[in-house]
Each structure stands twice: as structure tokens, then as C-alpha cells.
Amino acid sequence: MASLGDIGVAAAINILSVFAFFVAFAILRLQPFNDRVYFPKWYLKGLRSCPVHSGAFVHKFVNLDYRSYISFLNWMPSALKMPEPELINHAGLDSAVYLRIYLLGLKLFVPITLIAFTVLVPVNWTNDTLEHSHVTFNDIDRLSISNIPTGSKRFWTHIVLAYVFTFWTCYVLHKEYGLVESMRLHFLSSEQRRPDQFTVLVRNVPPDPDETVSELVEHFFLVNHPDHYLTHQVVYNANELADLVKEKKKMQNWLDYYQLKYSRNQSKRPRMKTGLLGFFGDEVDAIDFYTSEMEKISEEIEAERERIISNPKSIMPAAFVSFKSRWGAAVSAQTQQSRDPTMWLTEWAPEPRDVYWHNLAVPFVTLTIRRLIIAVAFFFLTFFFMIPIAFVQSLANITGIEKAAPFLKPVIEVHAIKAFIQGFLPGIVLKIFLILLPTILMIMSKIEGFISISYLERRSASRYYLFKLVNVFLGSIVTGTAFEQLHSFSHEPANNIPKTIGVSIPMKATFFITYIMIDGWAGVAGEIIRLKPLIIFHLKNFFMVKTEKDREEAMDPGSLGFNTGEPQIQFYFLLGLVYAVVTPILLPFVVVFFCLAYVVFRHQIINVYNQEYESAAAFWPDVHGRIIAALIISQLLLMGLLSTKQAAQSTPFLIVLPVLTIWFHRFCKSRFEPAFVRYPLKEAMMKDTLERTRERNLNLKEYLQNAYLHPVFKSGEDEDSDRVSAEWGQSSLVPTKRQSRMNTLLPGRFSGSSSPLLPEDIPEQD
Amino acid sequence: MASLGDIGVAAAINILSVFAFFVAFAILRLQPFNDRVYFPKWYLKGLRSCPVHSGAFVHKFVNLDYRSYISFLNWMPSALKMPEPELINHAGLDSAVYLRIYLLGLKLFVPITLIAFTVLVPVNWTNDTLEHSHVTFNDIDRLSISNIPTGSKRFWTHIVLAYVFTFWTCYVLHKEYGLVESMRLHFLSSEQRRPDQFTVLVRNVPPDPDETVSELVEHFFLVNHPDHYLTHQVVYNANELADLVKEKKKMQNWLDYYQLKYSRNQSKRPRMKTGLLGFFGDEVDAIDFYTSEMEKISEEIEAERERIISNPKSIMPAAFVSFKSRWGAAVSAQTQQSRDPTMWLTEWAPEPRDVYWHNLAVPFVTLTIRRLIIAVAFFFLTFFFMIPIAFVQSLANITGIEKAAPFLKPVIEVHAIKAFIQGFLPGIVLKIFLILLPTILMIMSKIEGFISISYLERRSASRYYLFKLVNVFLGSIVTGTAFEQLHSFSHEPANNIPKTIGVSIPMKATFFITYIMIDGWAGVAGEIIRLKPLIIFHLKNFFMVKTEKDREEAMDPGSLGFNTGEPQIQFYFLLGLVYAVVTPILLPFVVVFFCLAYVVFRHQIINVYNQEYESAAAFWPDVHGRIIAALIISQLLLMGLLSTKQAAQSTPFLIVLPVLTIWFHRFCKSRFEPAFVRYPLKEAMMKDTLERTRERNLNLKEYLQNAYLHPVFKSGEDEDSDRVSAEWGQSSLVPTKRQSRMNTLLPGRFSGSSSPLLPEDIPEQD
């Protein structure tokens, strides 16, 4: 176990490495050839089209202006400078509220740290239990609850502080929930007109022998919402078409490339080989080849499109139904339509770009079965994931490889290689699994049949958190695999579980401090340097980028990744709350994490990430719920710990805390959650009335007509904008771009150097 | 422990006593002077006004027609004869569906009994484990799972049967849920126009300094539901007024009595004393006195009414809002109105007679606090109710009484009296508590602030079931008080709990068989004879009934008592399911209970009970859920039992069952429950359209204007119908009466003796 000094050294090393990362970032960032890696958001928003390089210099790739390197940390204040409303306009409410989670961490833990250090540390330190005992101990332990003698009256301090921390947490959570709620409502009410405000997704349209799905939907809503129904759009099963369109896009890209090549060098028409990877097969004229291929595939696409539209089997029993007013849509989304609650299911349509088209037609009965299967699968994944991994590990040992590939024997038997295989291979198998885990969880969520990407991410996030809770938190505290824990816990008295875990809590403090520094601090510093995207971008740029469009694709920064990011933050909430009373020395590390992460992610959100969708902070109830769960876990563990300290009379005082916390959660749920699920009619009516007076001649039908057409169909309708809508994930960027330009800032504001929005640290003056 | 023979003797005795009850019932029922006790429903429906006595005989009180006594059981077929649709018309859907719970018990347990007896009994009987062991045992045990040697392969029979029974239970439950759902929907769609179809209750109208609640409500709904809002009715706090009206009614009754007396004997004006109970004080002319008193109180009522209407403080922040169409009301009830989900809360208005007026104005924050308090209180009531009872018992012992009242000492010291006090007093205290328990639970539900009587009853029912589960079921199986169990269970491994209970299950079979016979069989037989109402009616009729109205009140049969009745049935479901695999000999006793209860309650529902409200079987999800809970309990206990029998390999097979059952429950919940909570727009629209075409000139506003006026105000509006609306519970009968006459049968049909609806066993012919 590390002493306080050891921890100090480790912290110093980690701080230094974080600084090293920052310096590296400062240098890399200022090189114009990295501009598309570190500021892709500005390109995507159309506010920048080439790196801002100094005057007419040749340094197109390297920045030689020494002044710009001096203040290498000035991206931090500039990241913090953008006010929240502008941040919302710039990056969306989701991102702005996501940042508030880090801020919440600071609000929560800074006062807790202060109180804990002024009250708890002296109380713990001024004992000498550990000195008189014969256990090995260190300074960390002297600062923790372990230093209090059993049965001491001093435990009352801890109990009182548990109350104080609980009330503070609840207070902060309550305030934050209210704030996020009002931000969401304000955001929704000040938003521009969007198709999803008028549209409802209807699923499980019952089959009818006489009418098509389209007719059926129209009749149903004309009858049951006569004053409000406007139009609808059926959902096609267009997965094959999507593949073809993707193919066509790729060819278009090659064609562009060769035409560009030809236009530069008119003397020679470019030639290519038709076979594998362009290395084999007949050599043909490239432009002619791709032109004819393009024609062929265009015909195929047309045929497939015809087939889909004419074939009733490719029409799914679902439709996007649009209404004349937001009020009508709100009513339809919140009510039950038909007798049979499994038919004519209505719900708010997600944003067009948020729709996960693949899941639109899963029938109701399958849904519950799918969820049962996935629930069971997730249970096994959480508790038994070590079994297949151990199996793979056993295969991947020396003798296994020798058996499978005897010819490798001489190589493997070399000492260094043998050591490497034996030492690293098992670890790598586990690591690969952990890297793949979020993807696995995402696939599980997709199988469950949810229809919006935002919901899929939220679902995966909660699963990921559970996995981390069981396998990282409990797994580190109690030795043995999760399955062994499960087995032993089910054979233990129920009230022994918090005891067993609670007792180990103080002993694991140093481990978690190290964990916070390596996973938290270094992870965040690694985030800002974007090493993987940096390398990939340059590799792509060097080898694969043929056209401007390719470069744009190579630049694609992706979105924030709620499904992996949020569970990570939650883990620090859990650690902070659990250790707040037990070992307060851990708290500053958590606070530093939240500080760093807040600044870094604010910078990344402003400059890098590009959200795929906008859910208007629909994830907040999940965030709130998980912090509450962490709070309850911390209370139960404290109860377990104190009951072993012969402070048994404390149990009745501590049992009140989880009861109060659960009640608080239920209160918050009924007070705030509806704002994240439903759309109040009053708000809808207000927006409708306002719009009606402002725009009297609005042709809403035209506006909504094709909003929810499957993206692959759109490409057919305006042939020349193939590029825009070819792949739907890509196409979805377009409306945003337009929208955000519309309601945020004029591009002109960005070009002025005085604007606070401009990343000021880029050397603009010579 | 009783042997099979003992049980047989006990069963014979119980069957005989049940027959004795039936004979007593047959005799009592045919006496014309008991007619109002055994057939009050026909009086209340206005289909009978005086006992049907034979011709012009003098036997107005005693039936001397020997023929009518011969077939003393013929009330049974006649109770079963009424077809279900007519039963629904006659007694309402609630009662009809309530009977289906008994029928469900039969559907469930008759096949289970048959299978268990053909398969399990031979398998259990043909072992001799118990004979070779040195434990005392009896025939019952030989028939049970105890007779199988540990580790035997025969346990597979039990596991397979556990699967069979689970699937059968789920199948029956699923079918029944579907059936009840369609009955409910059919009932709702074929119903006559009712105010609650158009009305929504709005609560938590936010305070406004400029507008009254009434104006505020009107403006809000005119703005947000402009095409649908029709009218509204604010809610007054009229509890004092209600008291005054009650007082007036009592005086009116006395006045009627004296006037009747005077009209019979014109020679002497009746006189009375004004003091206590009419025994003390000045003697005055009774008619004059009550006439003047009536005038006084009428003035008071008028003043109070004025005060309530004019004083804004007596207007609660709630209102019943009525809409032009069912569609509008359905929309308003199912949507959120304002940003703040704690304001403008809308929900379907209960039927006017189902409203619990007292709870209409509980603010939202109080609600969650109240529920927290009640939840904690219920926890303590369930687990610690023995503590105050033991305390009272300790007070009520000999020395305690001697101390409190030393002068009683000589009396108490008499041997017989002492024995009585020591033997019975403690038991009586417990018994009184148990009798009061449903009332206590009802008061708890009322404190929680629910606004309809039907919901209060459902809430109390689920609490009562929980109490019975913990204190009767577990309390009988595991010795010790509930608190001791709680304590020991929390100190035991989680998977030991089903083991501990499971092992005791077979040993308690004889106890529960006796319980079924005494509580179930005899209870049901006692139900039909209605001993308490019979005695009370005759006492009242003899001593207190002054006027015809008094007689009607004395006759009041009350309603079915869902809050006590349903938990009792559920207890038999639990016993049946738990013992189905373990000790199948218990099953016939359960089947007999369900048979008897079905017939008896069908008779009672047809002839006696008068439902206070009609919730259209809104309780079915509760019933379904509790049977599922019983099924899961039975599966867990079987798992625990088998794991001690060294049939450990059985656990993985058995753990699948609760998982599947929970999944089945969730499936049913999403498939069927919405029909019990929401009102589909399609149905609303259909009814609206139909009504609009049928009745073009309907003045809906007039119809709805005063539907939700507090009952005490109605009495003021039509002074001459005071009697009808004086007390609201009473007044509520009127609309039903009219309604059911309207849409059921013509009274003429009842008078014909050939009608199947007529209780034929009443001697109509001489």
C-alpha cells in the first residue's frame, strides 16, 4: 500500500504527464496541417474552409510563429469564455447540458471537500488506533475512518456529515434538475420550426386486406383527428437501396478523382485496372469505366426504388403522421388511439436525423421477447463475461499456439517472444473485450428495437454504468470475479453484503486514487490531444483522400459519445460520494478530475465534436437517477462499515438516509421528469398561435411533406445533390448546418477577430 | 398433527355446519319480515316495495307454506341462472367481474387438482421414506413431497408439474385478462351518456392575484382547448355545510315521525322533551319544536351556503372541467397541460358518486410527503403491530385491572371470571384489532389523498393483502412475530429465506386445510346468512325506525367491500398455488371454497349488495398482479424446498420459472393495462359521432352544468328533493336507479313469474 508520500509522487508524475499532453497539444494544434483534426467543427459549420495560416507564407503546414507558442494554455480561458447561451446555439443543448454534468460534479464536491477537510480530517487524524494495532498502515489510512477506534463516540461526526452530504447532494441535484428543465423548456419554446414538432410516429398499423398502409393511416387519422391531421409518410424497408446508394456514392467519388486528375493533366486520360484493389484485371479508361458503371448503378437504384414503392411488402406497418399544429401532434403523441394498446402506437417522432430506421417495424410481441432475451444476455454478460475470455485466453497460450501451428514453434520458443505472449496475450484479450464492450452494448440496445439513436445511446449508457459498477467498483473492492461475488452474496445474509463491501472500502482508497489519476486525469489529457483521430486523419489524408469530399469525411470528428462518456463521469460521482465520509483524501483527486474534464470537454465541444442529433437534454433524468443510485450505495456501504465498528446504534440513524433519498428521487421524478417525456399543451398552443400570427401564408404541408422520407429516397428526388443525402448519417448534417446558421450567428461575426467566439489563440496576425 | 381421518372428520363437520347454515338461510330467507335483509337490492332498484307474501293472508311475518321449504337449496341454481350480460345490467360490471375472480379460481384449480391427483399423489404415495425415518408422520404427509427420499429422481415429476402449473396459470390469466378487457371496453362503449365521460378533474390550479379560480380555469381551457371546452364547476370546501345538511335531515326525519304520529291519532298533539335523549329538559309540542328548529337550521344552511359561495377561501384550487365531446375530455385527461407538471394536473373525473370530496384539494408537495409517511406507517403496522397490542394486553390483565380499579377486586377474584379475563381478554384485543384493520387501512389510504372511493378501496385491498401475506401466511409458516422474522431474515443469506420457508411448507398443510375450512367454507356460509345485518335490521326496525325512510336506511345492504373481500380470495389463490406441487391434498379444499363462494356471492350480488360506484372493473390489473405475485412466491418456495432435498440440480430449471413469470407479467401489463387506465381516442370519437347523429339538439351544457356540484349544494337547488340529495352517498343512488332502468330491463319483466331474472324460489303462488 502506498503512503501519502507515494501518492504525492504519483500525483506529481501524473500532473507532469498531463502538462506534457497539454504542451504537445499546444504545439500540434497550432500546425495548420492539423487544423482539420483540432477544429473540425468550424469546417463542418462552414465557418472555415482552409487553415488560417499567416499571410502569404509558405508555411502552409508548419507554424513558425514563436509567439503563438508562448501562452500554450490560453485555449483554456478561451474555451471557458463562450457564454452558455452561445454555446447552446453553437453546439446544441445536448452538449451544453452534458458539460453541466462536470459542473455539477464541481458544485457537489468542492464544498464537500472543504467540509470534509476541515471537519473529518482532524477528527480522523487525532487518533492513534492504527499505531497501537499491529496492522501495517500508512498516512492515507490515518486520514481515513480506519483510524477511529471501534465504538468511539467520534463516529457521530461521520454520521452527521453523512446527513450533511446527503442533504447537500439532494439540494444541488434538485436545483440542477430544475435548471436543466427550464433550459430544456426554453430551448424547445425558442426553437425554430422543426418537422418533429408536428410529427408523430405511428407503429403497428394493423394489417388490412382492403387498404394499403398509407390509405389506412390516412383514414384513421382523418376520422380520429379530423381537425388536426395534415399528411403522413409511410416507412419503407429500404436497407438494400441504402446499400446501392452507398455503392454509387463510392463510384461517384472515384469518378471525381479521375476527372480531377484528367483536368490537371489533359495530356493523358487516366487508366485503371478493374480487378481486385486495382492491381489485377483488364486495364480500361478510368473515366469511361466509372461513367458507365455509374449509369448502370443508377439504373439499378431506380429499379430498386420502383420495386420498393410498388411492392406493398416493402412498406412497413408504420408511418410518420404530421399534423396541422403542434397542439395536434402533442395530443396525438400523448394519447392512446385504439382499443388495442398494441395497435396504432403513437409517440413523438425523433428528429429526422435521430431516427434509427432499421428498427421502425419491429412488431409488439417481438419487442417484449427481445427485451427479455437482452435482459438475460446482459445479466450473463455482466456476471459471466470472464468465462469466454478465460477460454480464449487458455487457447491463446504457448502450447495452444504450438498445437494449432506447429511451424511457429521455433519462433515462439525464443525467450523474448515467449515472455511477451505469456505476459501480454491474456491481457490483450481482456483489453480488446473492454474496448469492444460499448459496441456490444450498443448492438444489444439496437436488438431491443428502440427507434432513435439518442435513446439507443441512453440505454447503452445505463448498461455500461451497471457493468462498471459490478465489475470495476465491486470487482475492485471484493476480490474474485463478478460471478463469484454473486454466488457468495447470494449465500450471505442480506445485511452482510453492505458490511462485507463496506469494510473493504477504506482499504481500497489508494487503489482508487491511482485509478482516478490514470483513468481520469490522463484519460482527459489524452482526450484533448486526440491521438487516434490525429493519426488516422493524417494516414487517410496521405493515402486515401482523393477529393475534397474525402477530406471532409476523413475529418469527421464524430459525436460526443454519451454512451461511454457519461458512465465514466458517473463512476467518479460514485467514488466521490462513497469516499466522502470514509476517506476524504480521495476527494481532491475527484475535484481535479472534474475541473480538467470540464475545461477539456468544453474546448472539444466548441471546436471538435459535431452532435449527430439534438435530444434537448433528454438524458438528464438518467444522469440524475444514477447520481441518486450512487448516493444510496454510499449510504448503504457506510451503514455496513459503521455496523462493524461497533457503532451499531448508528444504524437507525443511517437507515433514514436511503429512505429519504428514495423519497426525494420519487419527488423529483414526478416534479421534473414529465418535462423530459411529454410536451405540455399550453406550450404547444403558444407556439402555434405565435406562428399563425407571424406567418399567415405558411405552407406547412409542403414543409412537412418529405421531412421523414427515408434518406435514400431523397437522393433520388434531387439528383444533383446526391452527395448531400447519399448516406443518411451524412445527409443529416445538412439541415443542421442550415438551421444553426439561421438561428445562431451570422458567419460575418466569426471572421472578425474581436468576436469572443473565435478561437483566439490561432495566429491571425502575422 | 392430524391424520387423513382427522381431516376427514373435520371436513365432514364443516360440511355439515355449512349445510346447517344453508338450511337456516333457507328458513330465514322465506320469512317475509326478513325480506328486506335478504333482498334489499330489489327494493333499492324500486322493483319491490313490500314483501311478496302469499295472497291476502295474515302471515305477513311468517311464511307457513311448507312447500317452499322443501327445496331449500333452490336459491343456488337460481343464483347461477342469471346470464352474465343481465347480471352486468342488474348489478354493474364491477360486481360481475368480481364474480369472475371466483370463476378464475375454479378454472385454475380444477384442472390443477385433477393433474396433481393423477400424477403427483401416486408418485408421492409409493415411497416409504417416512416409514423408514423416525419422524412422526401421518397420511397427509405420505401424500406430500415429504415422502420422497432426498436426492430422488422422482423430484423431476414435481419440477415438470411446476412448469405445467405455471404455464396453465399464465394461460388462464392471459385469457381472463383479455376477456375482462373486452368486457370493460364493451361496457364503456355501450354505456349511456354519463357526466364523467365528458369531464376531467383539474387539480392544483395555480394561485393568481387577479383572477378567481373559476375565471382562471375558464381562461386556461378556452385558450388551450378552444374547440372543446364547454363548462366547468369549481370545487368548494363544504364540509361544514355537509354537517349542517345532515343535521337538518335528521330533524326532518323526527318531524315526519311526529307528524305521522299525529295524523294517526289526531286527538293528541305529540309532545317531547328538548334535553338529552328526550328524557330531560322542558316538555314542548314536538311538531312545533321541530318546525321551528327546521326553519332555524334552514336559515343557517342558507347563510353557510352564501358564505361558501362568496368566500374565495372556501373555493379549492380544483375544478371539474367538462368538454363538448368525449374526444376533448379524453385528450385533456391524457395530456400534460402546463410546463410545470405539478400544476394544472388533469385526470379523468370519477363518477359523481365515486368522488371522495374531502381529498380534492390536497396540494402536490403534501401528497408525496403524505405517501412517504403512510408508507413508513404501513411498514410499522405490518411488522410491529404486535407491540402496542401486547402492551394493551399487558394492561388488560388481572393485576392491571386490580390496580386501576381496586373496588373490582372481589369480583375479579372469582375463579370463573378470572379465568375468563385471563383466557379471553388478550385474544379479544387482537381480534378487535383485526376487525378494525380494514378500517385503519382505509383511513391510511384516505390520508394519502386519493380522490375516488374506488381507488381508495383498491389501495386498501393491496395493503390488506400484504398484511395477510406477512402476518398470516408467513406468520403461520415461520414461528415468531413478523418483526422477529424480519430480523432473522435480514441476518440470513438471501437464498436461505426461500429455503427456511420452503422446508416448513409441507408441515403446515394440515393447518392451512383447517384454516380453509374454518375461514373459507364457514366464512362463506356465514356470509349468506348475513347474521349481523339481520340482527341489526331487526333491532333498528323494532326500536328506531320511525318513518319509511328510516326503514330504507336500516335496510341499506352496503356494497361488496372490495378492500376486504378480494385479499381474502387472493389468499386462497396463494395457498392453492403454493401447495399445488407440494401437498396436492390441499387443492380440493380450495376448489370447494371457490365453488361455494362463487354461488354464494353470485346470490348476494343479485339480491343483496348495492354498489356505491361503478369503476368498470378497474381493479382487474390488481387482481392479476396479485395472482402473479402468488405464483412467483410459490415458485421461489418450491425452489427453496427442493434445494434442501438435495435435488440441487433442479435450481437452474426452477429459476427459469420466476423469470418467465415476471416477463409474462410485464407483457400483460403493456398489452392489457392501458385499457384500464386510458380511454382510446378512437372509441371516444365513435361514441361522439354516434351521439351527434342520433341527438342533434342535445343541450350538453345543461346536462353537465351541475353534474359535479358538491352534493350538499344540490339539496339547496331543489328544496323539495332534500331527501334525495341530502347525504351524498345516499343521493348517488338516484342516478343509477334511473340509469339502470333505462338501459336494462323494464320493470314489467320482473313481475312476470316466468322471467329467469326473478328470484324464483320466493313463493309467489299460494
From TrEMBL, chains A, B:
Domain CSC1/OSCA1-like cytosolic: 197-359
Residue span(s) of domain CSC1/OSCA1-like 7TM region: 370-642
Subcellular location: Membrane
Gene Ontology molecular functions: calcium-activated cation channel activity
Keywords attached to this entry: Ion channel, Ion transport, Membrane, Transmembrane, Transmembrane helix, Transport
Transmembrane segments: 6-28, 101-123, 155-174, 372-396, 416-444, 465-483, 571-601
Membrane topology, record value: Multi-pass membrane protein
Major subcellular location class: membrane
Region annotated Disordered, chain positions: 724-766
A cellular component term, taken from the record's GO annotations: plasma membrane
Annotated Pfam families: PHM7_cyt, RSN1_7TM, RSN1_TM
Start and end residues of each CSC1/OSCA1-like N-terminal transmembrane domain: 7-176
PANTHER family per record: PROBABLE MEMBRANE PROTEIN DUF221-RELATED, RE44586P
Family, as annotated: Belongs to the CSC1 (TC 1.A.17) family.
Name of the protein this chain belongs to: Calcium permeable stress-gated cation channel 1
UniProt source species: Coptis chinensis
